[in-house]
Design a protein that fits this description.
Shape: rod-shaped
Number of strands: 3
Distance between the termini: 91 Å
Strand order of the largest sheet: 1-2-3
Structural class: alpha+beta
Number of domains: 1
Helix content: 40-55%
Order of helices and strands: HHEEHE
Radius of gyration: 25 Å
Strand content: 15-25%
Number of helices: 3
Length: 155
């Protein structure tokens, strides 16, 4: 060891360590975001599946959007244990076709759009990955699923 250069390794470590830690935390945070993305997409799928099954209550009847919304609120409470801050959703109905032999019979799809907030947990990653305003450290994931509205065959 050359005399007078004993602190060079320490100085180099202190220069590189913040960048290395930021890279490490970013990779871990991306894994956290990937996990929550799977949760958001699964929640949107399950909510769309429920919405497609409960929208029509009687044969030949119209689709009841208020019934769909109330059932989906109950579903969101079940999926996220009553934490309403975890998930927001919107629903809309879209007519896809009409039956040529029976003009009162319409085919509809219900579209469920879910917004799922994710709190970033590792230091420094909100500077890179968070949505605005960055100081909150939140990433808002969005998922949309389309599902056909099921019509009952018998009353």
């Amino acid at each position: 060891m050359i005399r007078g250069r004993g602190g060079q390794t320490t100085v180099e470590l202190l220069m590189i360590l913040p960048f290395f830690m930021l890279m490490l935390f970013s990779v871990l945070e991306l894994g956290n975001i990937a996990y929550h993305t799977i949760l958001a997409h699964h929640a949107a799928y399950e909510m769309a599946r429920v919405a497609g099954m409960v929208g029509v209550t009687k044969m030949g009847g119209p689709t009841d959007k208020s019934l769909i919304d109330s059932k989906l609120r109950d579903q969101a409470d079940l999926m996220f244990a009553g934490r309403n801050d975890r998930l927001t959703f919107t629903t809309r109905l879209e007519t896809t076709s009409y039956d040529a032999q029976n003009p009162t019979h319409v085919n509809e799809d219900v579209i469920v759009e879910v917004t799922y907030p994710v709190r970033l947990i590792f230091p420094g990653t909100s500077w890179l990955l968070a949505d605005q305003p960055k100081y909150l450290g939140m990433k808002y994931l969005k998922a949309a699923v389309r599902m056909p509205v099921e019509r009952p065959l018998i009353n």
